[in-house]
Description:
Blueprint: H1 2-11, H2 24-86, H3 90-123, H4 129-165, H5 172-343, H6 352-366, E1 371-378, E2 383-390, H7 394-399, E3 402-404, H8 408-416, E4 420-422, H9 430-436, E5 446-454, E6 457-466, H10 472-508, H11 513-532, E7 535-541, E8 544-548, H12 550-556, H13 561-564, H14 575-583, H15 586-589, E9 593-598, E10 604-616, E11 619-628, H16 630-673, E12 686-692, E13 700-707, E14 710-718, H17 722-742, H18 748-762, E15 775-784, E16 789-795, E17 799-802, E18 815-817, E19 824-825, E20 839-842, E21 848-852, H19 869-879, H20 885-900, E22 909-915
Antiparallel strand pairs: 1-2, 1-6, 2-3, 4-5, 5-6, 7-8, 7-11, 9-10, 10-11, 12-22, 13-14, 14-15, 15-16, 15-19, 16-20, 17-18, 17-21, 21-22
Helix pairs in contact: 2-3, 2-5, 3-4, 4-5, 5-10, 10-11, 16-17, 17-18
Amino acid sequence: MxxxxxxxxxxxxxxxxxxxxxxxxxxxxxxxxxxxxxTGLLFWLSYEIWIVALDKQAYFVQQxxxxxxxxxxxxxxxxxxxxxxxxKGKKAIEEEIIExxxxxxxFEIQHQKMVETEIFLxxxxxxxxxxxxxxxxxxxAYNPIIDATKSFLKLKKEFLxxxxxxxxxxxxxxxxxxxxxxxxxxxKEHAHTEILRNMSxxxxxxxxxxxxxxxxxxxxxxxxxMLVLAFQAFMMFPPIVQKLKKFIALSIQNQQETEQKxxxxxxxxxxxxxxxxxxxxQSQILQQKNIELERIQFEVTQAxxxxxxxHKELEESRDHINNFKELEASRxxxxxxxxxxxxxxxxxDQTIYTWSENLLSELVPSLEALQATLYAYEEDKQTLxxxxxxxxxxxxxxxxxxxxxxxxLVGQVGKNLKSVYLKDLNGQAHxxxxxxxxxxxxxxxxxxxxxxxxxxxxxxxLELTSLKPLHEPxxxxxxxxxxxxxxxxxxLQDQKNINQLFADSQMAEKKLKRSLIKLQENEERFxxxxxxxxxxxxFVQEGIIKDCNNVMMNMFGYADTKDFLQLSYIELIAPKYxxxxxxNNFLEENKTQETVAIRKNNEIFxxxxxxxxxxxxxxxxNIISIRDITEKKRTEKQLxxxxxxxxxxxxxxxxNKSITxxxxxxxxxxxxxxxxxxxxxxxxxxxxxLYMPKDIVSGDFYWYAKKNNFVIIxxxxxxxHGVPGALMSVIGYSNLNKIVxxxxxxxxxxxxxxxxxxxxxxxxQQEGNSQSRDGMDLALCxxxxxxxxxxxxxxxxxxxxxxxxxxxxxxxxxxxxxxxALPIGGNFMYKNSLSYTTQxxxxxxxxxxxxxxxxxPDQFGEEKGQKYMTRRIKNKLIEIQPYDLETQKNILQEExxxxxxxxxxxxxxxxxxxxx
Length: 916
């Protein structure tokens, strides 16, 4: 509910629950939301009107498409009849008859779709008398075409059968029947085409009129939206303006109050200036005194100059001494820490007291101190226990053997964890003697009380006294050693507790040697683990925690032992792992297991846990050691992930090798279908092909065919490159062979028109829901070897023509014959308004023609970072005209590689040159 109220307050929607007496802001909020809702509803209404219009128009467009398809099939029927009539071979006629029969079926299917769409539009309320009349005329024109075509097919089949049986010519009336049916189809085809064209125009007009009507309704809705917004503006903004006026008046009042306060501040500032003037006068007096001091300082400077002359002889030796001191200072900490690491190393039968005494006996002389005491913190008692002293008499030693946390100076340092350093006591050491344990007979001049910590927790307090202030490196050394001393104190405290348990157990269970041996083993293991401070230890009796070390407290996030003790050890294990641990009889089996623990803040982490049993006062006590293995698990996981990645890389390499082998095999197949380059010289004096696929297989390919006296050469650029482009190249290659070699078409524009139809049929781009946009661009040349005329047509690709200039080679130029801005294939609506055109060039000896894909001009250069562009190609072609075409190929290839440099190749490259 709080979140809902906050949202309503933030958005202003709670204004609708208030009375009319609300302020102007709430009135504005209400009006704003009402305007927003009203505007949204009106826009939604406009959207629905437009959707209805588009749905209705879709059926009109569908009908127009069906009419266009019917028109195309009608013309196709007429063409096929003529092909059948003109064909000579029986096999060719039979194949054409099968295709014509399929075309008739398509014709009937398309007509049925037209009828169904017309019925649907009428059911939707569409009425047009002219269209109804044309639809009936279409019915009258449609049936005779179908009947005549079927009759023609029947007669043609009988003709083929009788021609094989009867010697000589067939009866004239039989041939007349065939001719009459052909004439019927041709006559009706023209009428049917005209009817379909008129129907298409009327449907398009109806669709446009319907859209114009809906646009009018939309304009009305949008006008209402503007009126609503204007009304809301006049209703909402005046109250806000009134509120702004009140706010401005309040601001002016506040400004006046501020000015009054500024006057008071100015008065106070004047008084401050008077005080500064008095200070200035005092400063002048001080300046006079400074002048006197400067005079005295000048005299001292003169004396110092004389002294400095005497010290010049000592400067060289002093530099050596200073360098030596700096070297000694840099090595001081390393040497000292290494030395005291040896001092603090545990010895056999060592206790916390003997260890502390040994440490202080080495530490005090090294620091040039006078006395020292070391206290260990007993957390359960909240006291500091004196565990070592140096230079302290026995009376003081026993008087301050236990200090409560917070009591006197040592207790305060232990409580606050902040050191106290007094380096100029001036004979007042007796006031600190009782609190520090120093002896009054020898009064120190400096005192350092320093907290010893481990893992940011109190482990003890070190007290040092000295006759003179301690050197700064000594204090820094104590800070650096604090963590190490603390770790040892903690470990020694734990050992002391274990030793006590061990002593009690020894007295109570002298006869149970095996239990004692086990206890000694556990004690030794515990001592080593405590020394390393990596494992936590629990003392458990009947499943309840009785004691633990600080590592355990820190590991599980407990700050107070009261919260930790008296818990069941199983509560430290994550809930879903507890059953498994108890099921394995963990406390009895004494096995090392891995499981998951849970901290006080509910954070889980992996651990390694082991239990040991000992005897204490005829009772079984379990000592449980726990080690955090988060890093171990993380390392194992990283290793496992590395092995998995290595396996995936190996598998990927194998798959990549298999794919590469398949692509290389596809490359061999693609290379096999490309024509021999020597064939391109047919009809030309010389030629070259520069072919540089981007990948193993290419989307660019060159094609050659010779039909009758025509030589046809094409440079084709399919959609994409690599494997997708190669698949498209196979479609283009097979269809070009079919159009030229089988159907005998040699005119470039007609070849492109037919290729466009075949590609769209192959990729099913004529279907209404087709999303395919694949196709190809190409330049196509057809050379008539008898006349020397070159016929060119292009789909998005040009032809560059360089005529041979016999008089002056410097005046040569590149003439560009542009192709039609229309690709082959692709489901594009604008293609209905464009068509391919054939351009004619009369070649002379020495003229050179070039066709190419877009890979060469679109290549980016390494240095300039821009495309090569066709302008540079034209300049380069003029430059290389004096050379033969093989040399030209090498120059163009070198130019491409130099321009590309280390930049990756952007696309497949195909460049063809032909010289007549």
